[in-house]
């Protein structure tokens, strides 16, 4: 055990029930038996943060020069890899957040300490996305899936039409959920072509009375990403986008949307928090049946603190926003993501058909890269051997199979380069 620090705790046994020579404890079968123990007091030393790591708690987030040798490359679609420097800073602040004497997980969500956390997170997100003042930023719970119901409940009456462009499984789920609360129209679906493309916007037959046009900006499962966005044609319609898997991966003109929503667990934080960016004039029109926890007006009036929010997840998102700003903002993040995506897609396309990406090239996702092997019986071996090399979670979604590499912001270039090198070696071995 490491040497104790000035903050180490010495725990002695004060329990008078244990001052004899026997202590009762259960055995594996659930029965109790007596175990002799020493009359000598039990001493347990808890090693807290070293002075160097404590000082790091208040320093800026600095990216490590190279990935830690103790870490694997995690290509999971979500919960996904987080920046190493963010995790290390959270670790250094975990026991005693900035001299407060508490962990971030213990403090009141209404106390000044946490208020400073959530306010800075919002401020940094506004700076990253250049969010106009006429938009509200909400930190909610329930995942993006909960927003499938919240959006029609807040924006529509039961008889109102809305338009959906469905380019993958998540857009389809949103469409089906909206059927309970309004009158959604499926104006385009890529299902017949196995969700491999995005339609021409000019060809979309929109309903002029639609309250909103809904898209999923990046389909996590199928790897289809909007590179630009359609404009709603109805005079009062707004564009609504699920950006869960490409949120903060590139600059976005927020003013073109009525609502942007995203589950955090892919690009900006751990599971538990959902971010909603909503134009303020859309708030306050919820259907009477809307549950209080789905009413945007309630959350906006209470600054996302109507009930206990996912405090630690919000804190982690704040660290990620700070890190993205320090890297140079979303323009620089997009440049890095384009480089990673180009390296991986080039390797697939140059394999002579050994690897194949089914998605139309113009709309290939920079976040989720699905591909298959020409010899499908090799896919399990590919995933198995990759794991042995420290590259995990490469199995495609259960609904489509194949291989999928999620290369979100926090996936370092070294991870993509290692995967590509492995792919070439695997092809040479099995082609």
Structural write-up:
The chain has 431 residues and is an alpha/beta fold. It is built from 10 helices and 18 strands. Helix 4 crosses helix 5. It starts with 9 loop residues before the first strand and ends with a helix.
H/E element order: EEEEHEHHEHEHEEEEEEEHHHEEHEEH
Largest sheet geometry: 7 strands, mixed
Rg (C-alpha, Å): 25 Å
Structural class: alpha/beta
What is the CA–CA distance across the termini? Answer: 50 Å
Strand order of the largest sheet: 6-14-13-12-9-7-8
Number of helices: 10
Helix content: 25-40%
Say how many strands there are: 18
Percent strand = 15-25%
Integer average pLDDT: 88
Shape: globular
Low-confidence spans: pLDDT under 50, at least 5 residues? Answer: 1-59
């Amino acid at each position: 055990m490491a040497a104790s620090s000035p903050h180490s705790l010495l725990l002695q046994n004060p329990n008078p029930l244990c001052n004899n020579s026997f202590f009762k404890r259960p055995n594996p079968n659930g029965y109790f038996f007596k175990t002799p123990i020493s009359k000598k007091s039990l001493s347990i030393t808890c090693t807290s943060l070293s002075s160097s790591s404590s000082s790091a708690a208040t320093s800026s987030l600095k990216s490590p020069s190279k990935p830690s040798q103790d870490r694997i490359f995690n290509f999971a679609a979500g919960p996904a890899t987080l920046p190493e420097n963010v995790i290390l800073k959270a670790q250094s602040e975990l026991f005693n957040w900035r001299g407060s004497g508490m962990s971030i997980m213990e403090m009141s969500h209404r106390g000044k300490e946490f208020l400073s956390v959530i306010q800075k997170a919002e401020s940094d997100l506004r700076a990253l996305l250049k969010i106009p003042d006429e938009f509200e930023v909400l930190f909610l719970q329930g995942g993006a899936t909960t927003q499938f119901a919240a959006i029609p409940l807040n924006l529509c009456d039961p008889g109102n039409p809305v338009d959906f462009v469905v380019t993958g499984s998540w857009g389809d789920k949103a469409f089906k959920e909206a059927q309970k609360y309004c009158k959604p129209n499926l104006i385009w679906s890529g299902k017949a072509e196995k969700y491999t493309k995005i339609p021409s916007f000019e060809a979309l037959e929109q309903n002029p009375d639609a309250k909103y046009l809904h898209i999923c900006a990046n389909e996590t499962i199928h790897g289809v990403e909007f590179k630009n966005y359609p404009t709603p044609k109805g005079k009062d319609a707004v564009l609504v986008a699920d950006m869960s898997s490409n949120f903060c991966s590139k600059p976005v003109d927020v003013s073109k949307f009525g609502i942007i929503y995203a589950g955090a667990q892919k690009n900006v934080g751990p599971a538990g928090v959902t971010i909603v960016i909503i134009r303020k004039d859309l708030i306050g029109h919820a259907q009477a049946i809307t549950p209080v926890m789905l009413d945007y007006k309630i959350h906006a009036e209470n600054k996302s603190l109507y009930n206990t929010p996912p405090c630690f997840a919000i804190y982690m998102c704040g660290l990620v926003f700070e890190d993205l700003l320090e890297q140079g903002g979303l323009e620089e993040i997009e440049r890095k993501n384009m480089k990673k995506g180009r390296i991986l897609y080039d390797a697939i396309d140059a394999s002579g058909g050994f690897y194949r990406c089914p998605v139309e090239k113009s709309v290939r996702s920079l976040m989720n890269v699905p591909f298959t092997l020409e010899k499908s019986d090799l896919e399990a071996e590919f995933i198995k051997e990759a794991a042995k090399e420290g590259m995990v979670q490469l199995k495609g979604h259960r609904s489509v199979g194949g291989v999928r590499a999620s290369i979100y912001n926090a996936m370092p270039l070294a991870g993509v380069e290692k995967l590509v090198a492995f792919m070439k070696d695997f092809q040479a071995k099995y082609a």
